[in-house]
Structure formats: C-alpha cells, structure tokens
Amino acid sequence: MSTQEFRTVNPSGNKRVLVTKELPGQRWIDILTAADCRVDISTSTDVLSVDEIKTVLRAHYDGAIGQLTEEWGNELFAALKAAGGRAYSNYAVGFNNIDIAAATQHGIAAGNTPGVLTETTAEMAVALTFATARRLGEAERFLRAGNYKGWLPTLFLGELLSGKTLGIIGAGRIGDAYARMMVEGHKMNLIYHDIYQNHALEDYIETYAEFLQQQGLAPVKCKKAGCVEELLEEADIVSIHTVLDDSTYHLIDAKHLLLMKENAILINTSRGPVIDEAALVTHCQQHPDFRAGLDVFENEPEMKAGLVDLNNVVIVPHIASATSWTRQGMATLAAANVAAILQDYPVWGKNDIAPFLEGDTPRAAPSILNAEDLDIPIYKHS
Ligand code: DGY
Q: What's the CA-to-centroid distance between 306 and ligand 1, angstroms?
C-alpha cells in the first residue's frame, strides 16, 4: 500500500489514528478531530492484508479503526502496540475477526458498534425472506431476458408466509427485531433457539396474540425450541442471527438441512460460516422447492461452486447493514470508541447508544468488548 492510497485529515493532531477504509458521514471525523487526532484514512477499496496493515503500523499510531474483512489477531495487535497504540475499534458489530484475548494481552481496548445495525439488518432479513419466498430474483431475470409472454396462472408460484411458522436461531437484538417484524406484520407463529430465554420477545408476542383474539382473529404462538433440530423440523422459514464462534461454525450442515421441510426457506444475514455452504449448494440442487436468501458467504467475497447458478437462492453482497443512517452510525461509534480510550474516558455500559449519534458526544466509549479485562471503569449515568 503506497502513501498515495491515504488521505489525512487534521494533519496537526497530536494523536494519530489509522482507519483502514473510507467511512461515510462527517460526525466520526469530527469526533476524532475534537480528540486532537490526526486521521490517516486508507482510500483503497481492496481488502488490506495483515502484512499491508503491519507495514503502515511501522509509523507511530495511537489507535486504529479496522474492518470485518481484516484479521485483527495477535500479529496486528502486537504491531499496533509496538506503534504506540492502545485503542482499536471494529467498524462492525460482529467481532469474529478480532482476537479479543490478544488485544487484551497487548493492553489494547477493542470496540465494536452495536445498536445501530439492529433494524437495518432485520429489514434486510425481511427483504430476503420475501424475495426468496416470492422468487423475485428469478422472476426479474426472466422478465429482463425478454421471456415474459403474458400472464399465466402458473407463472412463478411461490410461498405464502402469512400464518406460517418462523424459526429464528439467535434471539439477540437483530433476531428479536426480525421476529417482531415478521410475527406482527404477517401473523406468523414463532419458534426460537437461543441459549438465553428472551422474555421481552415472548411477552410482546403474547400481548399481540391477545390483541388478535380481541379482534376475533387467530392468535399467534411463540415457543423456545429445546434444540436446533426441533426448530429446523417445525419452521417454514429459518433465519440465522447468531454470532460466529466455534459453537456455531457449520451449525447448518447437510444433516441439518435434511431435517428442514422440502419447501422451507433459509435466510442468513449473520456470518457465512454458520452454514456449510457446499452442503447448501448440494441441498438446493437436489431440492428445487427449498429456497435460501443469503447476505453472507463462507469465504467472502468468493462463493462455493454452483451457488450463483441456483435459481432457488437469492444472493446479495453482505449489505444487510447498508443504509446511510446505519453506516454513518457505525462510523460514529467506532470513532467514539477510539477517541474515548485515547482520552481515558470510561465505557458507556448501556445498550442505548442513541446519545452518541447527535448532539454532544458523551465522554465515554460506547462499546469496548474487553473493558472488564482491562479494568476500564463504567460511566456514571446521572
Ligand atoms: C457487522 O457489523 O457485523 C455486519 O456484518 C456489517 O454489515
């Protein structure tokens, strides 16, 4: 990476922060500038390798903002430490690309950007669900190719979702938001799998069921699955919202796919390796009524052989969080993480990160994953 591939903002800043991609919006720049940081932004759109980032970190750096496409493990945290750094933030809520233990070992606070992706990502899961159920990609390709010769009773028959059973694997913030959108919008029953019980979601659906009954309509139901297998067998649509770690790697494999209904729909907006993608390709080839909607892939940007040829799969290039509001919000939170640590501020310690998005930025880091291990105190909320 040559120096031509950088632009520098606030060159006279006393601290120096590396940002490995251009980020949208202005607020994040203002936050770092107000914290007296010079900001070096890589203007390259290529995914930077560990070696390329290490080369840049030969200069002095106090902090860095990196991407989910970069492996922030021992090598990079050691390099950041040697460069004089003590703050890192992922420009992502997911952090499977960060070795938190390595960051902690090098005394580097490692942050992420929760709270601004929830609705946006859930909306993409909804979009993929409908695009898949109603065969939008296939139908559009057909039309654009000039194949439409007139209305037919049998043209592109898809699946009705209303009243069916939705299964979500992972009922954290995004899974919860998606479930509410689908259950309430389309009167679906819910089965969910998570290590934790989601009481708030269960209560919400129970209240909605009572409301439906008062209207003389059939109530919706909600239950927590005893195991993933139970969910896969019962659900008409399965949407994945887990983190990626050792326990979820290839959670959906050939055996699990066979448990699902012949005409089930599988949606993934979490991380590609949760699904054994080669097994999914084979399953979709052998079960034409089975459908999948994917935002993420096992070896991005590559896709397993055969995936792009499947008409029963809808694919988009990891854009579930791609709205201007969310991507600007992620930039704000990442910058606030780094700026706060470099100013010795505490961590926010609350789920509600809205105060960071407008007005005066709180004197706190919105989300530091290893705050406890590094003994970073929690902000005193009044
Ligand atoms: C994240 O932040 O983890 C998302 O995958 C980005 O879209």
A: 25
The one catalytic residue among 271, 283, 291, 327: 271
Interatomic CA distance for residues 351 and 172, integer angstroms? 12
On whether both 70 and 37 belong to a single domain, the answer is: yes
Task: From first to last of the 382 residues of the chain, give the pLDDT tens digit.
Answer: 555 699 999 999 999 999 999 999 999 999 999 999 999 999 999 999 999 999 999 999 999 999 999 999 999 999 999 999 999 999 999 999 999 999 999 999 999 999 999 999 999 999 999 999 999 999 999 999 999 999 999 999 999 999 999 999 999 999 999 999 999 999 999 999 999 999 999 999 999 999 999 999 999 999 999 999 999 999 999 999 999 999 999 999 999 999 999 999 999 999 999 999 999 999 999 999 999 999 999 999 999 999 999 999 999 999 999 999 999 999 999 999 999 999 999 999 999 999 999 999 999 999 999 999 999 999 999 8
54 and 79: one domain?
A: yes
Question: Do the bridges between strand 222-224 and strand 237-240 make them parallel or antiparallel, or are there none, so unpaired?
Answer: unpaired
Q: Is 68 in the pocket of ligand 1 (CB under 6 A)?
A: yes
Residue nearest to atom 4 of ligand 1 (CA): 92
Q: What are phi and psi of 252, to 5 degrees?
A: -100, 100
Q: Whose alpha carbon is nearest atom 1 of ligand 1?
A: 92
Distance from the alpha carbon of residue 325 to the mean position of ligand 1, in angstroms: 14
Phi, psi of 98 (to 5 degrees): -110, 135
Total domains, the chain? 2
- Tokens linked to 297: 């892939």
> For ligand 1, what atom is nearest to the CA of residue 330?
2
Q: Count the neighbouring beta carbons within 10 Å of the beta carbon of residue 308.
A: 10
Three-class secondary structure of residue 302 per DSSP = strand
* 224 within domain boundaries: yes
How many helices (H) and strands (E) the chain has is answered by 12, 13
Residues 244 and 255 in one domain: yes
Within-domain flag for 374: no
Verify whether residue 277 is a known catalytic residue.
no
- C-beta of 93 in contact with ligand 1 (< 6 A): yes
Q: Tell me, in angstroms, the distance from the centre of ligand 1 to residue 322's CA.
A: 9
Decide if 300 is catalytic: yes
Rounded to 5°, the CA angle 94-95-96 comes to 105
Q: Which atom of ligand 1 is nearest to the CA of 318?
A: 7
What's the 210 CA to ligand 1 centre distance in angstroms? 35
Same-domain pairing of 283 and 142: yes
| One domain, residues 59 and 34 | yes
